[in-house]
Design goal:
The protein is α/β, with parallel strands linked by helices. The protein is 38% helix and 19% strand. Helix 7 packs across helix 22, helix 8 packs parallel to helix 10 and helix 16 runs antiparallel to helix 17. The longest helix has 23 residues. The radius of gyration is 28 Å and the shape is elongated. The C terminus is likely disordered.
Length: 663
């Protein structure tokens, strides 16, 4: 119970007060009412996540932020009379009962109503009256109401609800023409026949079924005549989308020439195990490298491991003591046949070219602590043995944790290992202070050693911070990736241009997703937009269904899993319903104003990393986004398949013997 209480406080402080909920009555009520009582037992661990949850009868309990937003918008004051349409689990009525004098709530599903009554009685919330019926007609015998809240989307405002408002009363209701996506409206009764209306933004609710709402078959009910038909969002997407040819077609990358002027082109993926995402990024990268002078391919991969591939594609000898790379979970993320095609092509492309014109592969991530320490020491052994001896002493306190650096994070919470931060940072500073002397011997070798030293310093902080929880470890990791990209561009000169491969969660601007808005997280896409402005293109990739290579838990074996078809309330379903199987949707400003306005409504988007849990997909893999602000473009593959992992005896044609191994 203590854990749930802490989770409830965090929900209020982070998801509500940390955003735009300022009404003290609302915050206090949300802190008081136990949301776990209003969800099924199997969902209680997710009770204080800021997301909707299923409650039966095809209904959901609204996400806490939406509940708080609607109550705040209604301006409910102590002692007022409130009507709620759509009781559902009873949670919102319970919250309002902690503020209002009396709450009347209507639910059309009798089983849900019975459960809600039991919860009210168990909590001794005795100022709530509930009945089963058609909520679109209101509760005329209990009217007038100071506030009416409707937890279902209507095609238009039901006249009955307007009439049951007191003078000065507020009606908060989702209204929309397609039955799935709505605008949240606040209607204030200013006189016997006059009303004022405010638009509070885009929302997604189940449809309001009833005489003055939608009929059971999805059509407008008899009491709501149909206005002139507007284009649906899928229809608008189909009109705006640029169909893409097959991935084997030489013209596949033609539409992506529109991003060639950018200094950084960031290519995302909705999962780390989908073949089409790797193949598409390979074709786009080839075009940018071959025709437009891009010389940096930066990956969401560990720097030391990617450095071995860089030596290979740039025809440089491997390190004398090179160890097998990409051995850490998830091995299939970079050791797969689809990515190997890019490695083979880059090596062939670089053959015979001057070093400054060659395209290299570099890792942006920070996990391989042991490999980075080894690389720094090997470099110093060659160029400055005395400095190497000092470095070994300074890195000594990290030595026990090189193979399992996460253990270091746990240790520093109770032991005196904090001194390592000062030591590894001092080592980095001394290495950089001798930049000119070392770089004169071999600029590429120095860049590698310097970046490994930076990684050790950053990783020491990362593994320590990750055990405190919160967004700090994510933010440190993505900030490190951004700074690594900057170092690469600086090292290659002012004309250098980079292609970045990373997950959509890193590529899409976090400020326009649940990550940034609710959890306080940033990412490399956001940092690049803030730094490069129009000089960066953020390109997301998505899919509806198919198969994916993933694991059920961290360090589990990889499996080829079936991807569930996308949910009805998602970005992916809009794309699927467009009927276009492969397309590029340019989301740049001015492309399609009407579509842009519709896509600005927050919707769920699916994120599958190296872990996939289909049984809890809504809670584990969906987050709310605003697509046209998250990305500059969206690439769609309606059905996709899993990547083909490479085993230890099948490194792929032309691969260095150290890659890939260790499955």
């Amino acid at each position: 119970m203590a854990d749930l209480s802490r989770a409830r406080d965090r929900m209020v402080d982070v998801h509500l007060a940390g955003r735009d909920i300022r009404d003290r009555n609302v915050l206090d009520a949300m802190r008081e009412v136990p949301r776990e009582v209003f969800v099924d037992a199997g969902m209680r661990e997710f009770a204080y996540e800021d997301s909707p949850l299923p409650i039966g009868e095809g209904q959901t309990i609204s996400q806490p932020y939406i509940v708080a937003l609607m109550i705040q918008a209604a301006g409910i004051a102590p002692g007022e009379r409130v009507l709620e349409v759509g009781a559902g689990s009873g949670y919102a009525a319970a919250v309002m009962s902690r503020i209002a004098g009396r709450v009347h709530t209507i639910e059309r599903h009798a089983p849900l109503a019975a459960q809600a009554r039991e919860r009210f009685e168990a909590l001794r919330y005795d100022n709530i009256e509930l009945r089963v019926g058609d909520g679109s007609r209101g509760w005329p015998e209990a009217a007038p109401f100071d506030a009416i809240l409707v937890a279902a989307g209507a095609p238009d405002t039901p006249p009955a609800l307007r009439e049951q408002l007191a003078i000065g009363g507020r009606l908060v209701i989702p209204v929309g023409e397609d039955g799935q996506h709505q605008r949240l409206r606040r209607i204030t009764r200013t006189g016997p026949e006059t009303y004022k209306q405010d638009d509070l933004g885009g929302v997604m609710f189940v449809p309001l079924i009833g005489e003055q709402g939608w009929a059971e078959d999805g059509r407008r009910a008899a009491g709501n005549p149909v206005p002139a038909r507007e284009r649906s969002v899928p229809e608008m997407i189909a009109e705006a989308a640029l169909p893409l040819p097959d991935l084997d077609d030489d013209d596949f990358a033609d539409p992506f020439e529109r991003f060639a002027h950018c200094r950084v082109v960031m290519l995302g993926e909705a999962s780390h195990g989908t073949a089409e995402f790797y193949r598409a990024r390979t074709e786009i990268t080839r075009r940018l490298v071959e025709r437009h002078g891009f010389t940096i391919v930066a990956l969401e991969a560990d720097w030391p491991d990617a450095a071995a591939l860089d030596r290979h594609v740039r025809h440089r000898p491997p390190r004398a003591d090179a160890e097998p790379v990409f051995q850490r979970f998830p091995t299939w993320m970079w050791r797969n046949a689809e990515f190997a095609e890019l490695v083979v092509w880059l090596r062939a492309h670089n053959h015979g070219r001057p070093r400054e014109q060659q395209a290299g592969i570099h890792g942006l991530d920070m996990y391989n602590l042991g490999g980075s320490i080894a690389a720094v020491l090997e470099y110093l052994d060659k160029v400055d043995p005395e400095a190497a001896a000092v470095a070994r002493e300074r890195y000594g306190c990290l030595t026990p944790w090189q193979k399992e650096p996460g253990t270091y994070g746990r240790a520093v919470l109770t032991r005196g290992y904090a001194k390592c931060e000062a030591e590894v940072t001092r080592q980095l500073h001394e290495l950089l202070q001798r930049r000119l002397e070392y770089a004169a011997r071999d600029g590429d070798e120095f860049l590698d050693a310097a970046q490994n030293a930076r990684l050790v310093a950053a990783a020491e902080r990362y593994y320590r911070v990750m055990y405190y929880g919160g967004p700090q470890s994510w933010n440190l990791r993505d900030t490190h990736m951004f700074e690594t990209l900057q170092h690469l561009l600086d090292a290659r000169g002012p004309e250098a241009k980079a292609v970045v491969w990373a997950h959509n969660s890193h590529i899409g601007d976090a400020r326009h997703t649940e990550m940034g808005r609710a959890r306080g997280e940033l990412n490399i896409g956001q940092l690049c937009r803030e730094h490069f402005g129009d000089g960066v293109a953020l390109v997301g990739l998505g899919t509806h269904a198919g198969t994916v290579a993933a694991a059920h838990d961290w360090d589990d074996d990889m499996q080829v899993m079936k991807v569930r078809p996308s949910r009805a309330d998602t970005v992916e379903r809009l794309c699927h319903d467009s009927g276009v199987r492969r397309f590029l949707l340019d989301l740049g400003e001015g492309r399609d104003g009407a579509l842009d306005r519709r896509l600005l409504e927050p919707r769920l988007e699916r994120f599958i990393g190296v872990i996939y849990r289909p049984d809890t997909e809504l809670q584990s893999h969906y987050a709310e986004v605003t697509l046209p602000r998250q990305f500059d473009a969206w690439v769609w593959f309606d059905e996709t398949r899993a990547v083909t992992p490479l085993g230890p005896t099948h490194p792929g044609p032309g691969m260095p013997v150290t890659w890939p191994t260790g499955l």
